[in-house]
Write a structure and sequence with these properties.
Helix content is 10%, strand content 35%. By secondary structure, it is mainly beta. It folds into 2 domains: 165 residues, Translation factors (Elongation Factor Tu (Ef-tu), domain 3), CATH 2.40.30; 48 residues, no CATH class.
């Protein structure tokens, strides 16, 4: 489990900027104006975590139980809430109701993992879903151009084996992209610029955390 410090926000889109050496950085833009709306402690819950909220919400749009949970700790009402595990000493630095400052979570050049929900593509065939080549286009081919081909044998085992690549639901699943680099941190605006593409469509919600497969959460030594 990734317990490196991170934040929760919304993917705005993509952009680019020129570095000092003249090279171009192609980046995904994440609005990470998350607010601490709760905490989990070792003494009370058995683990340490920060509960982050994003997007202001009206009381009439939330259930009474959710509104009560916000008011009980004195946190502002938020549309989206995510719980991110983190070390106890990191969670102790932030108060409930305060904005999570990006400069205290990340540093420029740090490697991060980004988790989001991919765009849903509905029920798709094997050519789109699995990049099958399809059948030949000549010699009188009829109605088999985008078929998947053989899916089993006649006598042994006499059935279709599980886990074959076949048509089905494609997209709309949780995906993590590992070891992306933070190109720029705009602390006052609450904006992160992350090199490369991240999962999901524009305005989709993403979780950004220090890289789990790098030392020190991807931070420079």
């Amino acid at each position: 489990m990734n317990s490196n410090p991170g934040t929760f926000g919304k993917k705005i889109g993509m952009t680019q900027f020129f570095r000092a050496d003249g090279s171009v950085a192609r980046c995904s833009v994440v609005d990470a104006n998350a607010v601490v709306v709760g905490k989990r402690t070792m003494e009370r819950d058995g683990y340490s975590a920060l509960v982050l909220g994003y997007g202001d919400a009206k009381e009439k749009h939330l259930s009474k139980a959710v509104v009560t949970s916000f008011k009980k700790v004195g946190a502002p009402l938020k549309k989206k809430v995510r719980e991110l595990r983190c070390p106890p000493e990191f969670a102790a630095k932030f108060e409930i109701g305060a904005k999570l400052p990006l400069k205290e979570v990340f540093e420029e050049g740090q490697f991060v993992d980004v988790q989001g929900t991919t765009r849903g593509r509905g029920f798709s065939g094997v050519v789109r879903r699995w990049s099958f080549a399809g059948f030949v286009q000549t010699h009188g081919t009829h109605e088999y151009r985008r078929h998947g081909g053989s899916i089993g044998t006649n006598m042994t085992p006499g059935r279709t084996l599980p886990n074959l690549k076949m048509p089905g639901q494609y997209g709309n699943e949780t995906v993590s992209v590992l070891n992306l680099k933070i190109a720029r941190i705009m602390n006052e605006e609450g904006i992160l610029l992350i090199e490369g593409g991240i999962p999901g469509a524009r305005h989709g919600f993403v979780i950004v955390r220090g890289a789990v497969k790098k030392k020190n959460g991807g931070k420079k030594a």
